[in-house]
Design the sequence.
């Protein structure tokens, strides 16, 4: 699967108010990191953020689905970001901050 570099650039720009974000190609997609912790990923040209019990209801309330691994055929702790959120830098920052908090909790 080819990575859409224009989409990666767009997402990084949308996350510009969130702070320093790094990306790495991974398993045919791109992972997004802050302070060395993965908080998001781009797979199948869809941006996903990390979830746990604290922020999963935000996604489910809007009908968003878990990222499914094509290799493992099961959900992962990442949910699709609603288009309206992705297109709004301020909203995306809030959702990204929650995803980063999930990454921090998972690290402990």
Sequence:
């Amino acid at each position: 699967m080819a990575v859409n570099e224009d989409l990666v650039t767009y997402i990084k720009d949308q996350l510009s108010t969130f702070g320093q974000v790094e990306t790495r190609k991974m398993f045919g997609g791109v992972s997004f990191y802050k302070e060395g912790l993965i908080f998001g990923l781009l797979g199948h040209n869809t941006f996903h953020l990390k979830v746990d019990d604290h922020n999963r209801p935000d996604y489910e309330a809007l009908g968003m689905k878990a990222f499914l691994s094509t290799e493992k055929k099961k959900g992962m702790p990442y949910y699709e970001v609603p288009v309206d959120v992705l297109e709004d830098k301020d909203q995306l920052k809030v959702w990204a901050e929650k995803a980063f908090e999930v990454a921090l909790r998972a690290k402990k």
